[in-house]
Amino acid sequence: MKFLYTLSFSILSLTLTAQTTEDNSSKKAVEESTYEKDFEQLKELHIAYENSEDRVKHLKLMDDFYDKIKELRKMRDAIGNDVNATLEWIKNNLDKTQFTSYEEAKKEWDNIQTVGMTSFMKNQEYFNFMQKCLLKYGPDILRKVMEEAIPNPYTDF
Questions:
Q1: Which of the two residues, 115 and 28, has the higher pLDDT score?
Q2: Which of 10, 49, 57, 91 has a beta carbon 3.0–4.6 Å from 126's, enabling a disulfide?
């Protein structure tokens, strides 16, 4: 009787272990499939965003704006990453720019902000899905999307 009990227990244990292993494998396969699907959707949305008319216009306006600052490195050293300090620096260093007046710089800056906000609003699907993916998978998914969407962004330099 002890033998039958031990044999039954062993068979039950093996069955449960096999089932758990199978369940874990199935779960892992589903998670990988979900990641792949989310990755491809995020990549598609990212490419659409980067190629959108408003995004391209926003980047062009920013390039044109910063091209008018003769001592861009000095400005960046002075203000760091505080983009809000950009106009203040220009106001105090107008002679180190190609702007004819502070008002011209402010008008261009305001236009950049407006176009940027328009681009953001028109691409809410991308930004919402990106946020969902970042919360679910961490920042690595976005880095990988950017690497695939823009294989080597420094080839123009």
A1: 115
A2: 49
